Amino acid sequence: VQLQASGGGSVQPGGSLTLSCAASGFGFSGEWMHWIRQGSAPVFEWVSEVSPDGATTHFSNSVKGRFTIFRDNAKNTLYLQMNDLQPEDTAQYYCARSCSILGRTAHCGDWGRGTLVTVSS
User: Fold this and answer.
1) Which uninterrupted H or E stretch holds 21?
2) Cα(71)–Cα(117) distance, rounded to whole angstroms?
3) For the chain, which end, N or C, has fewer CB atoms within 10 Å of the first or last residue's CB respectively?
4) Can you tell me the distance from the alpha carbon of 6 to that of 14, in angstroms, rounded to the nearest whole number?
5) Dihedral angle, C-alpha 13, 16, 22, 28, nearest 10 °
6) Distance between alpha carbon 57 and the CA centroid of its chain, in Å?
7) Pairing between strand 33-38 and 91-102?
């Protein structure tokens, strides 16, 4: 299983970024996929999930209305469009599979190399 996120960077508050995650080594098109993030605390915060066909999405309260998750099963790629970014969104972002969500935290079977998002003025 390989999951490689990209697209992070430094933006000012109110800015936007789109993250991508290239997936391989498993049946991507048949699985729920997730975005998780790790900020200063040593835990993974669950951000969002999308169903295998892309029709159903869920978001944490902290990003609802600002982030959009979508996927391209033909390209085995997961995306996260992030708008109106705030300093509290600063974190390492990862795509993941086989996740259990407990409160705000995620416990995932696989996650790959993350991409850093920094929001500051």
Assistant:
1) strand 17-24
2) 20
3) C
4) 20
5) 100
6) 12
7) antiparallel
For residue 61, how far is the Cα from the chain centroid? Answer: 14
- Look at residues 82, 74, 83, 69 and name the one whose alpha carbon lies nearest to residue 33: 69
45, 100 Cβ separation under 8 angstroms: no
Q: Please state whether beta strands 115-119 and 9-11 pair in parallel, antiparallel, or not at all (unpaired).
A: parallel
Q: 14-59: per-residue pLDDT in tens?
A: 999 999 999 999 999 999 999 999 998 889 999 999 999 999 999 9
- Give dist(CA 19, CA 116) in Å, integer: 10
* Residue 40: other Cβ atoms inside 10 A: 6
Tell me the pLDDT tens digit for each residue of 93-115: 999 999 999 989 999 999 999 99
Residue with token string 């299983």: 1
CA dist 117 and 23 (Å) reads: 20
Task: Return the SS3 of 79.
Answer: strand
